[in-house]
Design brief:
N-terminal domain of TfIIb, five-stranded mixed β-sheet, binds S-adenosylmethionine, 35% strand, 255 residues, Rossmann fold, single chain, alpha/beta
């Protein structure tokens, strides 16, 4: 078992497994289009959001801690005639030569920072890399369904099953979840499997990912402590302010 680092099968199968998981591109486009200028997608991964925005000629760069994810992003972009500027850095240590009008983090990547210091450091770096009128956009989720039905803890379930077109193999992703409620940590075990058309297991990989969840007030306080102002919330990738019915909360703030 390996900790999540977005290498190996976790990286190479990312698009196949997660590409259609969230319908969030239009939402980010809307928020970003309210502020023209230079954009940085932090934890851009394989470019799920970055590449469609580049295709519209938006001035956008990416940053990610995984070289493999960045290489996959580059490869997809080059195939579409695009050549994005991508930075191989950790968000909690990032240091780039320029500032941005928007910094945004889709895919709940901020929650992969499980230590409080890391979260504080990342927010300070985002501040330091924003232009005076810039905006920070961070999406988070609270695993409400799972918290309300704890019976499902530590039980393996099939999360995704799909065919890989390039070699016609079957791709499976099983997951098991557990929570530490006082610490607000969700542990997700993902087991990836590549199976041949004859049913032979060709490759498998077990990953453990730990995700910190934040309740709304807590995240507002965190942003305020980091010096952000004019904080708005959006629920479930809509223009509605986050409310009781939402488990996906996006925060937008300025300096
Ligand atoms: C769930 S993926 C999201 C990718 C993309 N934003 C999307 O929505 O499809 C999480 C990404 O965060 C990156 N990541 C994890 N920890 C990071 C860190 N400390 N700094 C920068 N990137 C990180 C991973 O390498 C991975 O590409």
């Amino acid at each position: 078992m390996q900790e999540t680092n977005y290498e190996g099968l976790e990286a190479s199968l990312y698009d196949l497994i997660w590409q259609d998981e969230y319908d969030d591109e239009a939402f980010y486009s809307w928020l970003l289009s309210e502020k023209n200028g230079k954009i940085l997608e932090v934890a851009c991964g394989t470019g799920r959001i970055l590449i469609p925005l580049l295709q519209r000629n938006w001035d956008i760069q990416g940053l990610d801690a995984s070289e493999t994810m960045l290489n996959l992003c580059k490869k997809t972009a080059l195939a579409k005639g695009l050549n994005p500027l991508l930075h191989h850095q950790k968000m909690e240590e990032m240091s780039l030569p320029e500032k941005y009008d928007s910094i945004f983090l889709p895919g709940f990547s901020f929650q992969l920072l499980t230590l409080r210091d890391q979260a504080d450091q990342a927010l300070q770096h985002f501040r330091n890399h924003l232009n005076k009128d810039g905006q920070l956009i961070i999406s988070t989720f609270v695993p409400w369904d799972f918290l309300q039905n704890a019976e499902g803890e530590n039980i393996w379930r099939l999360r995704k099953e799909t065919l890989r077109p390039k070699d016609n193999t079957q791709i499976l992703c099983h997951e098991a979840l557990a929570t530490a409620r006082q610490e607000q940590l969700l542990t997700v075990w993902n087991r990836y499997e590549v199976i041949s058309s004859e049913g032979k297991l060709l490759e498998t990989e077990l990953r453990r990912m730990i995700i910190r969840w934040y309740f709304q007030n807590e995240f507002l306080l965190l942003l305020e402590k980091a010096g952000f102002k004019n904080i708005e919330t959006f629920g479930d990738f809509s223009s509605d302010p986050a409310g009781e019915e939402h488990s996906l909360i996006t925060y937008r703030a300025t300096l």
